[in-house]
Design goal:
The protein is built from 6 helices and no strands. The chain is mostly helical. The protein starts with a helix and ends with a helix.
C-alpha cells in the first residue's frame, strides 16, 4: 500500500519527472523499490507485534494471576525477558514474511514468465501449509502402521 501511494500521486500530478522517478526507484519490481518493500514488511512486522503484544501488560497480567516464568524475577525482569523473547520470535517471523513476499517478485524478475503466470505470497503460503499437513498425515499413517505391526507380533 505504501508503495502504491506515490504512483497514485504521480498519476494525479501528471509530472513526467515524478513519474520517471517513481518508475525507476519506487516500484517494487526495481532493486531499490524491492529493498524498500522488504524493509517495510520487516518494520511493520515488528511494529504490529509490539503494538499488539505489550510486554509490560503481559508482565503485570502474570503477576496479578500469581504466575511467573521460572528463573525470571517478577516485574521489570519479566517484562525485559518477554520483550527479548518477542523480539527474537518477531525477527524470525518477519524474516519468513519477507522471504514469502519477496519470492514471487524475485521469480518474476529472474524468469521470463509473463505477468499473468505469477505466484503470489498467499499461494506459496497455501502450498507450504498443504505440504506440511500432507507430511504430518503420512507420518501419522506410518506410525500407526508400525504400531499395528508391533501389536500383532505380541
Amino acid at each position: 500500500m505504501f508503495l502504491t501511494i506515490p504512483s497514485v500521486i504521480a498519476s494525479l500530478i501528471q509530472n513526467e519527472n515524478v513519474i520517471n522517478f517513481i518508475n525507476k526507484y519506487i516500484l517494487y519490481t526495481t532493486p531499490t523499490g524491492f529493498a524498500l518493500y522488504i524493509l517495510l514488511i520487516f518494520f511493520f512486522g515488528y511494529f504490529y507485534t509490539f503494538m499488539v503484544m505489550n510486554p509490560e501488560d503481559m508482565s503485570k497480567d502474570l503477576n496479578q494471576r500469581g504466575a511467573y516464568i521460572p528463573g525470571v524475577r517478577p516485574g521489570t525482569e519479566t517484562s525485559k525477558y518477554i520483550s527479548k523473547s518477542i523480539g527474537r520470535l518477531t525477527a524470525v517471523g518477519s524474516l519468513f514474511l519477507c522471504i514469502l513476499a519477496g519470492m514471487p517478485v524475485l521469480m518474476s524478475m529472474f524468469t521470463n514468465l509473463p505477468s499473468s503466470v505469477s505466484i503470489g505470497g498467499t499461494g506459496v503460503l497455501i502450498v507450504v501449509g498443504v505440504a506440511i499437513e500432507t507430511y504430518k498425515q503420512i507420518e501419522s499413517g506410518l506410525v500407526s502402521r508400525s504400531y499395528q505391526k508391533r501389536r500383532a507380533k505380541r
